[in-house]
């Protein structure tokens, strides 16, 4: 490995039409964390997205939002891992999760993609054993197609819960980097958030 750097990737779709959608909460979480650290993501062509280097708690981390559409996220992640010469053990992926209630944040390593096209592409491109920060967006009510649901704007009634979840996701990323998965899970899963 090249160094002790972490790569923190927030999944989403590029473009204003997707900016406030449920499918973009992973990207929002990474941008929120960058803001909290007093940083701003900017275009990084070699990585295939927007990125910024950070030093949370003295650790080295690159916060990144791919410029690719969700179903091509693996390309940008692969480029960034290659650029920094990192293994999957140094990758944290923040993403939306239909199987969690709105605003709930959970951490895990690996696992299936649950139909998530971005995770599926990352699994096919670089592998599945990544650290994940899962941000709950809930399931659609009634017969609505989940693919349509994730691309709809976040409802006003859900915005406060999701904003809290974005802050919690940032805390979770910092805890994963500082203390590892088990300690971070104990801290965040015990909160019930």
| Mean pLDDT over the residues | 93
Count of the separate structural domains:
1
Structural Rg: 15 Å
> Low-confidence runs (pLDDT<50, min 5 residues)?
none
Shape: globular
Question: What order do the SSEs take from the amino end to the carboxyl end, as H and E?
Answer: EHEEEHEEHEHHH
Q: Please tally the helical runs, counting DSSP H or I stretches of 4 or more residues.
A: 6
Structure commentary:
- By secondary structure, the protein is α/β, with parallel strands linked by helices.
- Helix content is about 35%, strand content about 20%.
- It contains six helices and seven strands, in the order E-H-E-E-E-H-E-E-H-E-H-H-H.
- It has helices spanning about 25-35, 75-85, 115-125, 145-150, 155-180, 180-190, and strands spanning about 5-10, 40-45, 50-55, 60-65, 90-95, 105-110, 130-135.
- It has a seven-stranded mixed sheet, sandwiched between helices.
- Helix 2 (about 75-85) packs across helix 3 and helix 5 (about 155-180) packs antiparallel against helix 6 (about 180-190).
- The mean pLDDT is about 95.
């Amino acid at each position: 490995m090249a160094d002790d750097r972490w790569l923190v990737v927030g999944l989403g779709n590029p473009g204003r039409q997707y900016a406030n959608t449920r499918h973009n909460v992973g990207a929002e979480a990474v941008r929120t964390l960058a803001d909290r650290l007093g940083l701003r993501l900017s275009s990084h062509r070699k990585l295939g997205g927007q990125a910024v280097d950070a030093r949370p708690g003295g650790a080295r981390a690159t916060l990144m939002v791919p410029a690719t559409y969700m179903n091509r996220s693996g390309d940008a992640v692969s480029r960034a891992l290659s650029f920094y010469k990192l293994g999957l053990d140094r990758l944290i992926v923040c993403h939306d999760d239909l199987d969690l209630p709105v605003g709930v944040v959970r951490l895990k390593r690996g696992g299936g993609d649950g139909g998530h096209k971005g995770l599926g592409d990352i699994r096919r491109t670089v592998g599945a054993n990544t650290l994940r920060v899962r941000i709950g967006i809930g399931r659609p009510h009634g017969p609505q197609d989940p693919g349509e649901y994730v691309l709809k704007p976040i409802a006003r009634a859900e915005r406060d819960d999701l904003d809290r979840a974005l802050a919690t996701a940032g805390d979770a990323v910092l805890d994963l980097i500082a203390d590892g998965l088990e300690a971070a899970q104990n801290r965040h899963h015990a909160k019930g958030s």
